[in-house]
Design brief:
258 residues; alpha/beta; 3-stranded antiparallel sheet; globular
């Protein structure tokens, strides 16, 4: 069943859709991602995808795993960022989130996890990432406008790296508490490894899913603020094939002429 947006628009190259509720948003985003996967299945033998790990992605990941048109055994998966300093069984590790929600539910061809305990991980992951182009990135936007862990202080639209170590901004760390992933700010790691903005933007298609009232200001800046690292997600407006999925809470009450 096709889910219809209650509103949609265009900001530069970025197409955005607003849905009545979070479930509709996730269902619609998953349908569009699946359509792109099916299209690519007809054109190439392997598909390379990057997935975000966050509660905001729950619905889209759920509906993707339910789509029986997807030939998962032809998909190589990456995840886009990972904390440094958590033990390997920690539920907050992004790879453990993705294992539970996605990687252990469907039979991928390959899954490349970021091992943040490996001192040579930047070099290893860079090699894997650069083997072939990335077809699809599924991502979200942070409360401070970050994409992956590219917070405003470390975001670089001309970054020469594929993956790098970053210090997490306090607003980003507080979001992890707000999302219920940690009990308090003191538990949230100070550092992480993240794919850089040029690495993410190299994907042929980007599907960005952003629900919730805590994201309203970030969405407003993404759509209507100046393109720059003060709100890293504004870079999505320059991508040739990027789509933003919102619910009523994240879009807010203002009109398109904001």
């Amino acid at each position: 069943m096709t889910v219809k947006a209650i509103s949609e628009g265009q900001k530069e190259k970025l197409t955005y859709y607003v849905f009545e509720d979070r479930d509709s948003m996730g269902r619609a985003a998953a349908a569009d991602v699946a359509e792109q996967i099916v299209k690519l299945q007809r054109e190439q033998s392997e598909i390379r995808m990057v997935f975000a790990a966050a509660p905001s992605q729950n619905e889209v990941l759920h509906y993707l795993t339910q789509d029986n048109r997807i030939e998962w055994e032809r998909i190589t998966a990456f995840h886009m960022d990972e904390y440094i300093g958590l033990h390997e069984e920690a539920p907050q590790l992004f790879q453990n989130f993705l294992k539970e929600k996605l990687f252990e539910k469907v039979p991928f061809k390959q899954i490349h996890l970021i091992n943040s305990t490996n001192g040579e991980e930047v070099e290893r992951y860079t090699r894997l990432f650069q083997e072939r182009p990335i077809d699809i990135v599924c991502l979200g936007i942070g409360e401070n406008g970050h994409i992956a862990f590219n917070d405003p202080p470390v975001a670089d639209f001309q970054d020469e790296a594929i993956i790098k170590k970053v210090e997490l901004e306090e607003a980003c760390r507080q979001q992890q508490v707000n999302d219920g992933c940690f009990k308090g700010l003191e538990e949230v790691p100070l550092y992480a490894l993240t794919l850089t903005i040029p690495a993410l933007m190299s994907a042929k298609s980007m599907y960005c899913v952003v629900p919730g009232k805590t994201k309203t200001e970030a969405v407003r800046e993404t759509l209507h603020g100046p393109i720059g690292t003060a709100c890293p997600a504004t870079i999505l407006r320059t991508h040739d094939h990027a789509f933003l999925y919102l619910d009523g809470d994240s879009y807010g009450d203002e009109k398109d002429e904001r």
